[in-house]
Specification:
Elements (H helix, E strand, L loop, with lengths): L5 E7 L2 E7 L10 E5 L10 H4 L6 E5 L18 H15 L4 E6 L1 H12 L4 E7 L12 H13 L12 H12 L3 H10 L1 E4 L2 E4 L15 H9 L5 E7 L7 H10 L3 E7 L4 H4 L1 H12 L4
Parallel strand pairs: 3-4, 3-5, 5-6, 6-9, 9-10
Antiparallel strand pairs: 1-2, 2-4, 7-8
């Protein structure tokens, strides 16, 4: 049981999106699954999981600004609203009217928004380590806006770090995200570009700009309540500090047709421990209709 993934390119109005995709020879009746990775990750995030899946047509994309995909035009800012449109543009380019969404972390947040905003397009939803989005208290609004503006205005003055060897970049990613070496290597090898003197991250520096405005908690609950399709959610134990166990439980409880699996693991549990994740989500996404 394993999916073979090949590099492919998808043209949307923004530009070229790169992706890993199952061969076109797969049964045309197989469920169509669009996979969305986390913040500063890329399509390689789903390689370990794909090795334990079968019976689906899987397209794991590099979201705009990530991996090898196009960056936004100069002066533009990455927003979740535009991310929803980019996902729909990709589905349209693939010729997919209805499809399943499989998301990790930021990708799970985007997938949640797509499912809530366009229920007629999404057959099933799998969210790993996020659901609905990250909320913030209303009293933090002005501070968040100031931080976002300051960071965006300072982007051009910052120089990108050059890693003399690829292994140095891998070690940096391991430290930043508590990743094992094989997992970090998958992400890094797809997420760097060769430059004079070594390697640089290929992701758009504007992705580091703090989000201008976050929803309040009640809005995230409403988003989850608006997800009409069958949904399975996977969370790691212990919970991430920014999404405590009681908060994520409330979000899952708001789902009309949701199921939750909590398992020991790290934030990248779909990469570090793909077998139990695949056992939970594989049969679910392989069901057509």
């Amino acid at each position: 049981m394993s999916l073979e993934l090949k590099d492919t390119r998808i043209d949307i109005p923004l530009g070229t999106i790169t992706a890993l995709r199952t061969p076109a020879t797969l049964d045309g009746n197989a469920p169509r699954v669009l996979a969305l990775h986390g913040w500063l990750d890329n399509a390689a995030s789903f390689i370990p999981l794909a090795k334990h899946l079968s019976g689906i047509e899987l397209v794991a994309i590099d979201l705009p600004g990530h991996g090898r995909s196009v960056h936004l035009p100069a002066g533009a800012i990455y927003t979740f609203e535009m991310a929803v449109h980019h996902v729909l543009d990709i589905a349209d380019a693939l010729g997919w009217e209805r499809f399943t969404l499989l998301g990790h972390s930021m990708g799970a947040g985007i997938a949640s928004l797509v499912a809530a905003a366009c229920p007629q397009r999404v057959e099933r939803l799998v969210c790993i380590e996020a659901l609905g989005g990250l909320a913030d208290a209303a009293e933090n609004t002005a501070r968040r806006m100031r931080e976002s503006v300051a960071a965006m205005r300072a982007i051009d003055a910052k120089s990108l770090r050059v890693f003399p060897q690829l292994d140095v970049a891998i070690q940096a990613r391991m430290r930043a995200n508590a990743m094992s070496e094989p997992v970090a290597r998958l992400i890094v090898e797809r997420g760097v570009r060769e430059v004079a003197g070594g390697w640089q991250w290929s992701s758009d520096p504007r992705l580091m700009v703090p989000t201008w405005l976050r929803p309040v908690d009640a809005q995230v609950v409403t988003v989850c309540a608006g997800i009409e399709c069958p949904t399975r959610v996977v969370f790691a134990d212990p919970a991430q500090p920014y999404l405590p166990a009681d908060v994520r439980r409330r979000y899952v409880d708001a789902l009309p047709r949701g199921e939750l699996l909590t398992m020991p693991g790290t934030h990248h549990l779909h990469m570090e421990t793909p077998v139990p994740v695949a056992d939970w989500v594989g049969p679910f996404i392989a069901r057509a209709g």
